[in-house]
Amino acid sequence: MTDLPSPYLLFLGDTRNETYAKTAFGLRDWAPETVIGEYAMPEATVTLGLERLTPAEAASRGARALLLGIAPVGGAIPAHWLSELVAALEAGLDIVAGLHQRLADIPELAATARRLGRTLHDVRHPTVSFSTGTGLPRMGKRLLTVGTDCALGKKYTALAIAKRWRALGGNADFRATGQTGIMIAGHGVAIDAVVADFIAGAAEWLSPANSADHWDIIEGQGSLYHPAFAGVTLGLLHGAQPDLFVLCHDPTRGTIYGYPHIPMPDLADAIALYEQLGRLTNPAIACAGISINSSKMSDPERQDWMARTSDRLGLPVADPLRDGVDAFIQRMQTVTA
Question: What fold characterizes domain 141-336?
Answer without folding.
Answer: Rossmann fold (3.40.50)
